[in-house]
Amino acid sequence: MTDSNILTQIDAHIQQNTDYWLAQLARLCAQPSISAQNIGIQETAELVATLLREQGYHAEIMPSDGYPVIYGEGGAGEKTLLLYLHYDVQPPEPLELWESPPFEMTRRGDLFYARGISDDKGHIISRLAALAAVRDVLGELPCRVKFIIEGEEEVGSPNMPTFIWQHKEKLAADACIWEFGGVDYNGTPMQSLGMRGICYTELSVQTATMDAHSGLGGSIFPNAAWRLVWALNSLKDENEHILIPGFYENVRLPSALDLELLAKLPDYAAQLKQNYGLASFLKGIAGGLELKQTAVFAPTCTICGLTAGYQGAGVKTVLPAKASAKVDFRLVPDQSPEEIATKLRAHLDTQGFNDVEVKLLGGGRPAKVPPDHPFVQLANETAVAVYGKEPLVEPMVGGSGPNYPFIHVLGLPVVSAGIGYPGSQVHAPNENMRLDYYLLGTRHTAYIIEGFARMA
Ligand SMILES: [Zn+2]
Asked: Strand 414-415 relative to strand 111-113: parallel, antiparallel, unpaired?
């Protein structure tokens, strides 16, 4: 049998089993699993393990330092493919904006609505449907498959790095498919190869045991709000240069290939300006490659919020005793959150801000897969076969995720493939999945699995 024959049969299998898998998706979406509110976590972990077992996989619910992780495995062969997914979802609120109940999959035309239907329960089902197609067409799975399905992705995967370190041998594999994927506004497949890291901090200062009348203390008491503003002001200059000594010393510049890929991506400058009502971009950047490169390959220092004193209606002449700010740093390879937190502390001390306390509220390291890795090539070639067009390859995206331990602890190339599209409304009311993109994303996943088993 030729490859194209096999692929045609895989396509037919996915098409013919659509109703079965939509029914499984409805079953999974009906079970709430809101990690932020600790709702339905154990029940969903058990349901996901059941779904894997129904497909003949060995599945276990493993404890972590947080919510349980489902580990699954099956198939046989020399090579092992790891599938990373998550069973938790974002809270459905505000409920009044949903046109149908969030935990009841509802079809309207060729759109299916439910919380988590795209992020990430639709991807769990799509992976299972793709594997079933490859298995049934070939008679057996052509490679070993391992699943790692966590329940804390929507709260930042705080325990994933440790979990992966602890189970390094069990999770050993040759390649990994990430939990998301899909197309852009034009239906063009997207491939994301890297994510920035993050160092999320809270800076706080207390200058007195209670707020004071500004007439009493204004000339003679230290003011927490001013202390904080001065400390923040020392972090970055007007040219967007971050002033923490050593901040840039581990920054690795994008490769020539990274820049080539960025150059091929659409220029969203005008659209961004319009959507956000911006007069201009920072540093006078007009658009083009410079904007694309700066947007994802430059580290940041962002004030996310400030709190001090009185901000209600009218006048309150108060001198605040306490002030705090949340500040996040998006990191690029090879920076690390621990390094940046240490350098931030040292900088504040040197600048005379020993009174400003720094708390590290969360962090994750940046990581990227080389664009010329053979597994990335396979994901790109199979995307062309399924979608009929070249994928847009992003060497790096601006956001953050737990890809570092997969790339650097397990040593895996990680690619994206999936059912998402820009109208999915993930994290928002009326989250949905389009039937055509479900079928395309499932075929793409199946083609990757089939091709992976034959890869040299
Ligand atoms: Zn999400």
From this structure: unpaired
